[in-house]
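Why phosphoenolpyruvate carboxykinase (GTP)? Reviewers of the renewal asked for a concrete example.
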Amino acid sequence: MLRVLNPRLGFAQSIKRTLFLMLHQGVHGVLGQWISPDDLNTEIHDRYPNCMEGRVLYVIPFSMGPIGSPLSKVGIELTDSIYVVLCMTIMTRMHPNVWNVIESSKEFVRCVHSVGCPTSSNQIVKNNWPCNPEKTLISHVPKERLIMSFGSGYGGNSLLGKKCFALRIAGCIARDEGWLAEHMLIMSVTNPKGEEKFIAAAFPSACGKTNMAMLEPSVPGWKVQCVGDDIAWMRFDEHGVLRAINPEAGFFGVAPGTNKKTNPNAMATCMKNTIFTNIGQTKDGHIFWEGLEDQYSPDTEIITWLGDHVKLSDKSKDPKAHPNSRFCCPANQCPIIHPKWEDPQGVPISALIFGGRRPSGIPLVMQSFDWKHGVMLGAALKSEATAAAEFTGKSVMHDPMAMRPFVGYNFGHYLDHWLGMEKPSRKMPLIFHVNWFRLNKHGKFVWPGFGHNIRVIDWILRRVDGEDNGVHSPIGILPKKDSINFDGLNIDWDENFSLPKDYLLEDVDETIKYLHEQVGKDLPVVIQKELINQRERIQSEL
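Here is what the prediction returned.
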């Protein structure tokens, strides 16, 4: 195990410093920070000359997805960070055979990364973590399949096979080639009858993707196996079936809150061959983060992520591990990894799920009326801000398709691409929306979550099988009362499924305003109509 510390700056997605090259003027919103070719060249020439002076240059050939799979893509990353090399060894298929793929296909994504700290500079390196936060810049040139990242060591900004390649650049490739690159987990669920189905689910960062991908069912007879916890590449095959691969080879999970109760499989996975970043540790070298308190006595001495020595019982408001501290470990160590997790043909997807942290107004689960309505539900996705982004507080933010920081081209065109997936010859997966995080009037969660989420997945899979267990509502198809197994739970059905009219009207109005501001004239007419129809149903039916 390797424990890495870095300073406060540069340990979250640097969204405001993540740029995409554009050739044409458009809406300047938060769904991508766009820059002109001339301005980008100026920024690059201000940073990169001599930026690696005195450091070691590493060349990393890697494959996203199984090497040789028709769904995989390859890249080369140049970096001056050994941390990046070690993590890329875990997170990608780093192998000499990648050179053979490049030689035969002549296509690869070019990735350049520098921490921006030449040894000749006068910069002070804190905690052995070289970075240059004042000049951090993560730039993408989709047409050239080029990523250039400067000044940050954070995983999403420096492990360029991850979000930069696997979502932003791959999203552009997917648009050009007719497939989808999405911020989604992939899991298989087998019911007590032995029937297996695969699900892909999109949640904003730190909203439970890893927990769901490694779910331990609370109901006997069910089995969950993990294919991937973060990114899905999906393409319809010649039979019209949507097939998905996990392009990554490891897990880069949020540590705080992970424990043997919330995610025992993640804990088992990261017990060896793992790189921990910005966690705390006990005086005798054991790992620590918030959520592991029960494993140690109150007088245990903890070395915090900033190097301070405190007692576990210390009541300071300062966290002992950074809220976005991470574990980086090989996927093949997961006790419930699916035998087909590296199948080059991918696994067949029966359902797509969107979800976020919605403390008010949004039901536990609902199904879209059809594909178009489902795309609208994804476009309207919102969630409380998390530690994985550089925003703080508890404000509910828009995160369309859970891709707000990761869309690599015009978001209106991205929605058009999703809408264009629907064809008569294809077996379209059903689309659902879930909300594990609704609160009651006392501020308590109305749903227990974690392993009990299998009860909701059970309902979803029965909908996939055509069971008549749903009822129309203005915002989607809700479960018929008592059609979800609540046995053994003290759960109030209405607290999970009530639809407050005023809240929902305000919510859809705010969504319409947001999408018009952020997407403008490029917002597909189909999505506009779906939103208007949704508002009219809420007004007339509630």
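Residues 182-250+339-500 form a domain with the Phosphoenolpyruvate Carboxykinase; domain 3 fold (CATH 3.90.228.20). This is the kind of structural detail the renewal will allow us to pursue systematically.
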